[in-house]
Amino acid sequence: MENLATEVRPLFFTKVSKIAMSICFISSSVCYAGEDMAEDDKSDSKYETELERQRILLIKQGQQIEKLTQMITALTAKNVAPMPPSGANSDSTRKGRASKSVREADHNIAKNKPVGQAPAKSSSAIDASAIPELGDTFSGVLSGKGTLVLEPSIGYSYTDNNRVFLDAFSFIPALVVGLIDLREIKRHSFIGSISARYGITERWEVDLKVPYIGRNDSQRSRPVSIGVSEDEIFNASGHGLGDIELSTRYQLNSPKDGGPIYVANLVATIPTGTSPFEVEFMQSTPGAVFPTELPTGSGYVSIQPSITAIYATDPGVFFGNLSYGYNMDTDEDVGNVDPGDSAGVSFGLGVSLNERTSMSLSYSHKHVLKSKINNMKIDGSQLDIGQLIIGYSFRYSPSTNVSLSLAIGVTDDAQDTRLNFRMPVTL
Prior knowledge:
Number of domains: 2
Structural class: alpha+beta
Largest sheet: 12 strands, antiparallel, barrel
Helix content: 10-25%
CATH class of the largest domain: Mainly Beta
Strand order of the largest sheet: 1-2-3-5-6-9-10-13-14-17-18-19
Number of strands: 20
Order of helices and strands: HHHEEEEEEEEEEEEEEEEEEEE
Strand content: over 45%
Distance between the termini: 53 Å
Radius of gyration: 45 Å
């Protein structure tokens, strides 16, 4: 409407200007005619004739103004571009037609364009970058049918423990006979791995992970009950292939109304690394025993089923995981060893800061039951591992993400610090 008014206004002012000039000319003519008649009374008939002619001219100009007003009103109501005035050149005509075509195109676009804001994203569309890692059993969302994802990663962990070993018996509470060993252990671990995920269907994917582990321990020990005057310091290291993991994931549902998504997970660990039962120990002082090398594997087969729930609420994603680890027993030189099963829970929130960056905050806790040797429970083998995890993810390109997570141990049995860097690449 503003464009129409802009185009009509110059035409209207042109007509009005011409009429105003005519009126001024008529007024001046009337004045001059009055002066002539005052000088000569004989020109009365001539004055009356001129007055009648001017009256007729004013009536015609008033009719033209009325027609012009009606034309402007009609053009405004019909939203049609006005015709160019007579005598307009061909360039003006072409410009008018082009302007009309542009207005018609804009009108057609506006007619086809949806009214209002676009609907919000469905909560079933999960942003994988908002979920850096859910424990050891789940990472992100499913890959999709026919999609291959290669994920190199490197991690570092540090543990510092002070332990007191008692291998003694007491006659009275204040008198202990045997070995009392005070020991400080500092452990550094590096884990590099490469994993490959492949989507068999839209809801089912498989995963293979091959780790390489390097460890270094520094132990300082002082047996206080046998008269040793100096601390015993022993360093040990180990590196090599770790335990290979095979896992599969299946999406149980596909909600349409924005409900949570449930994913079933199954992870199997094959003991391909060096077993703790294969490591030799040495004794430096009576009662002070140290390993000659460090294991890179667990030494037993582990099967861990779990279920994950994901609920998206713009701009965040809530997630949680429940797991149970079944650790198979193994026959070793010391007898039948049952490592003890475990139960774990993790939950958290991922938030998208923008289209390429997201952060997450989560907590993971695992309770490990007591181990057994020949069906005899080992005191002190029960563990509680709790970690607070802060994650960061950046979408480097449409096919590559960069994720960094920091886990801080909140229980005595947990690692003090664990730093993990991942870079999944979609092929």
